[in-house]
């Protein structure tokens, strides 16, 4: 069974080669994430502002219950 499993893993690796083996032109993981989540034309929303907004909503809900 382990042979079959390792064979399947080997096939998957053949389909999706390790991007680091491709060389210096491949981007780092962080750089890819930055491009995905922060498009250059979009205005980045500060996570702390969002968190403060959520905290305010939760706080008002909590104080209303008591």
Work out the count of structural domains: 1
- Overall mean confidence score, pLDDT: 67
Task: Work out the helicity level.
Answer: 55-70%
Care to count the β-strands? Answer: 0
What is the CA-based Rg, rounded?
Answer: 23 Å
Percent of residues in beta strands = under 5%
What best-fitting shape do the alpha-carbon axes yield?
A: elongated
Overall structural class, as computed from helix and strand content, comes to mainly alpha
Task: Summarize this structure briefly.
The protein has 66 residues and is mostly helical. The chain has helices at residues 2-15, 29-37, 47-65.
SSE diagram, text form:
Layout: H1 2-15, H2 29-37, H3 47-65
Structure description:
The protein has 66 residues and is an all-alpha fold. The model has no long low-confidence stretch (mean pLDDT 67). The protein has helices at residues 2-15, 29-37, 47-65. The radius of gyration is 23 Å and the shape is elongated. The chain has one domain (2-65). Helix content is 64%, strand content 0%. It is built from three helices and no strands.
Core attributes:
66 residues, mainly alpha, 3 helices, single chain, 0% strand
């Amino acid at each position: 069974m382990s042979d079959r499993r390792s064979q399947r893993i080997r096939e998957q690796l053949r389909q999706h080669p390790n991007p680091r083996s491709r060389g210096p032109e491949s981007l780092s993981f962080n750089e890819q994430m930055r491009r995905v989540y922060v498009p250059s034309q979009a205005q980045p929303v500060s996570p702390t502002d969002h968190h403060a907004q959520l905290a305010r909503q939760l706080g008002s809900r909590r104080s209303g219950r008591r």
